[in-house]
Amino acid sequence: MYASREDIGYNFGEDSKVGNKPIKPNPNIDGGWAWMIVFSSFLVHILIMGSQMALGILNMEWLEEFNQSRGLTAWVSSLSMGITLIVGPFIGLFITMCGCRKTAIIGGILNALGWILSAYASNVHYLFLTFGVTAGVGSGMVYLPAVVMVGQYFQKRRALAQGLSTTGTGFGAFLMTALLKYLCREFGWRNAMFIQGAISLNLCVCGALMRPLSHKDASEKYVVRSNSEDNQAKDLSHSAETIKSNGVLSEEPDKNQEATNEEVLDSVKHIEIGGKSRSGKNMYGLRILKTVSQLTVTVRKGFGIWHSSYFGAASLFTNRVFVAFIIWALFAYSSFVIPFIHLPEIVKQYNLSSQNNIFPLTSIIAIVHIFGKVILGIISDLPCISTWNVFLTANFTLVTCILTLPLMQTYISLAVICALIGFSSGYFSLMPVVTEDLVGTKHLANAYGIIICANGISALLGPPFAGWIYDITHKYDFSFYICGLLYMVGILFLFIQPYIGKKQPREKSTEEAQV
């Protein structure tokens, strides 16, 4: 099913060496500080995604406080969740210019500010700005770096690492729900949001833990992707095709731009040296000029890389499989969210409320979802298993469950389907891995930003679309059927596009499995 690794732009050598010089494995790749990165990402998922899963508690408080319609009030939560994902492509620009650490720290401050300002809300529209936009953008500025950093620090165990870090969403849903219930009961919803804002400042600590890999570390990580000297000629023959098919950006414009930038900085240094005999005031002005020049160089270079990734001749959109991946993402997330919205009503319709109160079906999805992420990550990291095949199998299982759920009318059958939904939806932890296989680690931030942006659009529009279908048909069944069929269309794009584009995610090589 798969093309060769050279076609997809990945090359693996038999020996861990560059030329004839052996390379000592870096202890921070797949170990050491890499596990601190996983821990940091785990906490980010608890504080951001877990908090968003618990917003139903605050939604009830807002309904009682502001006496607005359920639809208008629900937009506060939808905006926060949607904007967190939709801003992904723009957060990629920040990461390119400032790095993951600085972006995450700034995002943590912005997220906390959104929670604190929301405590003083006088109406729902005020919450749109403070909580929906401010806290949402801050969440996005922390969430994307948390995912990207795990991809940078892991090579052999990427799927497992992503699975462990994203389990924070499930744990966070339980912890934050209990915490917000307690805070609202004891202190009121305004003080609860103020306290939650203070807790969210821990996102800055998580960002501080995102220590960037040095150039030496990065080169040692990717030595497993370099062929030996005997294959160098073959690598060159595939380079042009790789650039066209996978959106790998040309380095020549960067080199020309770097040369121009060096000339600017050299001229500033020359002026500074010539001004040593001048007064201290002039020297201070020259230092400011130098700092501004360096900042300008960084911004121009980062924006150039970001712009060429999306709009250049060799942009990410020239990779047909990646484009199919985006189409899939537009339909996928809403199909996962809809059961959480409509299951309580379905349970009530079938007179299963007493059994559901003992062990809610949504809790079954959340609990099994945690195990699904870890288990699918472990399976995907096996040397004989393709991550892409695991990803597609999980998607087919999930869409089958979505389509058959309305047919189940007993608690046991619904519980089984919900367990399968929770387990198969564990493929979310594989999304960064599949994205990295498609575009490479260098473009992971920009590429994954696009993917989560598509997910954000799906999360923002999917539930209202399902509600609109119910208003027309007065049945929940059609919401599942229509959204499930749209989801199936997205999966079929993923399935057939590799055969059309002749470019597919790489399989694991024996050499990679043994590194």
UniProtKB/TrEMBL annotation:
Positions of transmembrane segments: 33-55, 75-96, 103-121, 127-148, 160-180, 192-210, 321-343, 358-376, 388-405, 411-434, 446-466, 478-496
Major facilitator superfamily (MFS) profile domain segment(s): 37-502
One CC-aspect GO term: membrane
Chain coiled-coil ranges: none
GO molecular function, a single term: monocarboxylic acid transmembrane transporter activity
The entry's keywords: Membrane, Transmembrane, Transmembrane helix
Topology class, membrane: Multi-pass membrane protein
Keyword Methyltransferase appears in the UniProt entry: no
Subcellular location: Membrane
PANTHER family: MONOCARBOXYLATE TRANSPORTER, MONOCARBOXYLATE TRANSPORTER 14
Protein name as catalogued: MOT14 protein
Species assigned in the record: Anseranas semipalmata (Magpie goose)
